[in-house]
Specification:
Blueprint: H1 2-32, E1 40-49, E2 55-66, E3 70-72, H2 78-84, H3 87-108, E4 116-120, H4 123-126, H5 131-141, E5 149-154, H6 155-159, H7 164-174, E6 178-184, E7 201-204, H8 206-211, H9 216-231, E8 235-238, H10 244-252, E9 257-258, H11 269-283
Parallel strand pairs: 2-4, 4-5, 5-6, 6-7, 7-8, 8-9
Antiparallel strand pairs: 1-2, 1-9, 2-3
Bound molecules: ligand C2E and magnesium ion (3 copies).
One magnesium ion binds at residues 183, 205-206, 239.
Protein name: Phytochrome-like protein cph2
Domain EAL: 24-280
């Protein structure tokens, strides 16, 4: 009897496993040709000064638009891309496209190159032997100043990687590109490790921001992160700001920058450029109505 149940369970498991393996293989095959078929696109979310509301940067976020399946979010294909190594060509495309966008941003705002674009990069990508060389070549090809590009890496990228990764980070920074530590607080590094890494900007993970209103401990953690970061001359961005209350509290805690749905969702470049322009007019005290 037990054997029978066991067998039956195994059969069900087999079917489910078969389907998921098949689905994965199909997805991998489609993802393999996504770049060639021009199915990837970037959206951009504004990063703003929480004290003045000036837009100081844009974070690029990749989306996969297949003709048959519709829109796939990064969480549903970036992990597979990382496992299969497809993140290398995909990441190369993202970098290329983001640099092209910087050119467009500058053309839309002649004379000001004060807004930078942040690109998320994976461990696999950054560990490629020619990563730094490619990065420099891409910047040069698009005539982009290094100061206008930032790379976002996660804590786990640093913590789980061999020693060599820190040297790699130094090489990137020597190019003049700034490094952001993404999703801070979710990985295994501790605040006391922070000074060992060449990080310019620290992004407090969304989970802390979303919990700060209901749990005082989270607010204390955010406060501690901001204080320590400032002592290390590191700028702080709060991710995932959704309410006016969160924003005003972060302002009181002297957080530097923020991003989140309250200010703007990620949008295609043209739409985000319109927001940048509208915002600049408002802050300059010009009337936006009727333009
Ligand atoms: P991330 O870098 O931490 O990006 C922030 C994510 O939070 C984005 O999700 C963004 O849309 C979302 N978000 C921003 N503000 C809010 C908010 O107020 N509330 C909520 N609930 N969410 C908010 P998205 O675009 O789905 O990206 C997810 C993750 O995928 C990114 O997390 C990043 O780790 C990865 N990713 C995105 N684009 C790339 C890429 O080009 N390369 C690599 N390697 N990873 C990428
Ligand atoms: Mg990011
Ligand atoms: Mg993040
Ligand atoms: Mg996050």
């Amino acid at each position: 009897r037990a054997k029978f149940t066991g067998k039956r369970c195994l059969a069900v498991f087999d079917d489910a496993m078969h389907a998921s393996v098949l689905k994965r293989l199909q997805m991998e095959a489609s993802l393999r040709s996504a770049v060639k078929h021009d199915e990837l696109r970037l959206e951009y979310q504004p990063i703003f000064d929480v004290q003045t509301s000036h837009i100081v940067g844009l974070e690029s976020l990749v989306r996969w638009q297949q003709p048959s399946t519709g829109l796939t979010q990064p969480m549903d294909f970036i992990p597979l891309a990382e496992e299969t190594g497809l993140i290398v060509p995909i990441g190369g495309w993202v970098l290329e496209e983001a640099c092209r966008a910087i050119g467009e941003l500058n053309a839309a705002r002649p004379g000001s190159q004060d807004i930078s674009i942040s690109v998320n990069v994976s461990k696999r990508q950054i560990a490629e032997p020619d990563f730094v060389e490619q990065l420099g070549a891409t910047l040069a090809r698009h005539d982009v100043h290094q100061r206008q590009l930032n790379l976002e890496i996660t804590e786990s990228l640093i913590m789980d990687s061999p020693e060599g990764i820190v040297d790699r980070l130094h090489e990137i920074r020597k190019l003049g590109v700034r490094l952001y530590m993404d999703d801070f607080g979710t990985g295994h590094s501790s605040l006391s490790c922070l000074h060992r890494f060449p990080i310019d900007v620290l992004k407090i993970d969304r989970s802390f921001v979303s919990t700060m209103e209901t749990n005082d401990d989270y607010e204390s953690i955010i406060h501690a992160i901001i204080t320590l970061a400032h002592n290390l001359n590191t700028t702080v961005i709060a991710e995932g700001i959704e309410t006016a209350q969160q924003l005003s509290r972060l302002r009181e805690l002297e957080c530097d920058l923020g991003q989140g749905y309250l200010f703007s969702q990620p949008k295609p470049l043209a739409e985000v450029l319109a927001i940048v322009r509208q915002h600049e007019q408002q802050l300059n005290g010009e009337t936006v109505v009727g333009r």
